[in-house]
Amino acid sequence: MIQVAVMGYGTIGSGVVEVLETNKDKITEKTGKEIAVKYILDLREFPGDPHEAQIVHDFEIIEKDEDVEIVVEAMGGVNPAYKFAKACLLAGKHVVTSNKALVAAHGTELLAIAREKNLNFLFEASVGGGIPLLRPLTQSLAGEKIEEISGILNGTTNYILTKMAREGQTFEEALKKAQELGYAERNPEADVEGYDTCRKITILTSLATGKEVNYEDVPTEGITKITDTDFKYAAKLGTSIKLFGTSRMEGNKASVYVCPMMIGTDHPLFAVNDVYNAVMVRGNTLGTVMFYGSGAGKLPTASAVVSDIVEIAGHMEDNIPTGWTDEKQPVAPMGEVTFSYFLRLAGKSADKLADVRAAFGEAETIELPEMDEFAVITGEMTEARFRKLAAAFEEDIRQTIRYTK
Ligand code: HSE
């Protein structure tokens, strides 16, 4: 028997207990051992809960119990999750977490402790919710040089953008609906400002390069400035707008960024809607593969946590290499990255198009009826060059969204 403790009995923690129960037979068959939840750590009481007897309020009970071999951290946030996860590893316990904030901030150190002590620190659920993504990246694609990772990594913002596209809602209306449905946090900043996507693309890049990426170095722009007017142009163009986390790796260089992208119908992620996530990974000999599924939610995320428990059950005495070391991976400045741009400008295209073309070269023009503005799509150029050229139109620019077909 393997005894497990679950820290945090919220959405994910209770989901983990549920999945372990629902799939008990399958898990026992697969691991050859029974996985039993000995403790559930939470500050709250759960009167009447079928697992009431396992609830404890004191972390030290878990830390000091030598029978507990695997600890699931599902508390969220960096503190005290970091302190507890580190203490568990130092006490000789394997740790599984769904917490991207913890992994992005302290992954390097926690992985090093796990390596040194022949334990495992696994975090499949921290990126892409239920989508098997980190294990394929570090194991199935271990022989590939990963050149690019790009995708929709946040379910809440994808839901909001889908609502705006389909129903013409404003950002505020769609956010309110997402909150009502329990997708967005009460304080939705981490989702809508792109911080959640930033941590996820940071984790993916660290695993792909084997080096530590500092999430604070990743240029991050959320979706709060996207408007219903942008979606009117998108509808006319047959495009969509999605929040992307992207990492392009070449030699020792990595361009990592988070921003809304306008994408065309031919883009593989065009039809990824609602709370779904999808990630494209390009390897040097493999080409591009795509991962798609539920990026958030209780049971999908818990399923990924349980997959880590099952993985560890087969490696109780050895460390599974992830390749993530403490070497630093610098992030290239955004100015060096190349995009096309969707640009909304005040005024009439008849008056301004000559100036626009003089600055940006040939540019596709889009007009909507009865609007005192028009839009253009530029050719490809580096962000630094775009900013320099766009400075001349500063007074007129109403919106800028990076664009790819
Ligand atoms: N807030 C996150 C999302 C949860 O909406 O994708 C999953 O990481």
From TrEMBL:
Keyword set includes RNA-binding: no
Residue numbers binding L-homoserine: 185
Enumerate the GO terms in the molecular function aspect: homoserine dehydrogenase activity; NADP binding
Q: Which reaction does it catalyse?
A: L-homoserine + NADP(+) = L-aspartate 4-semialdehyde + NADPH + H(+)
Which PROSITE patterns would you find in this protein's record?
HOMOSER_DHGENASE
Could you tell me which residue ranges the Homoserine dehydrogenase catalytic domain spans? 132-310
Please tell me where NADP(+) binds in this chain: 7-14
Q: Which residues form the active site?
A: 200 (proton donor)
**Which GO biological process categories is it annotated with?**
methionine biosynthetic process; threonine biosynthetic process
Indicate which residues the UniProt annotation says bind NADPH.
100
- Give the record's pathway: Amino-acid biosynthesis; L-methionine biosynthesis via de novo pathway; L-homoserine from L-aspartate: step 3/3; Amino-acid biosynthesis; L-threonine biosynthesis; L-threonine from L-aspartate: step 3/5
In terms of Pfam families, this protein maps to: Homoserine_dh, NAD_binding_3
Name the EC number(s).
Answer: 1.1.1.3
**Keywords attached to this entry:** Amino-acid biosynthesis, Methionine biosynthesis, NADP, Oxidoreductase, Sodium, Threonine biosynthesis
| Record domain Aspartate/homoserine dehydrogenase NAD-binding: where | 8-124
Q: Which family does it belong to?
A: Belongs to the homoserine dehydrogenase family.
NCBIfam families referenced in this protein's UniProt entry, alphabetically = PRK06349.1 (NF004976)
Known PANTHER family for this protein?
A: HOMOSERINE DEHYDROGENASE (PTHR43331:SF1)
* Name of this protein: Homoserine dehydrogenase
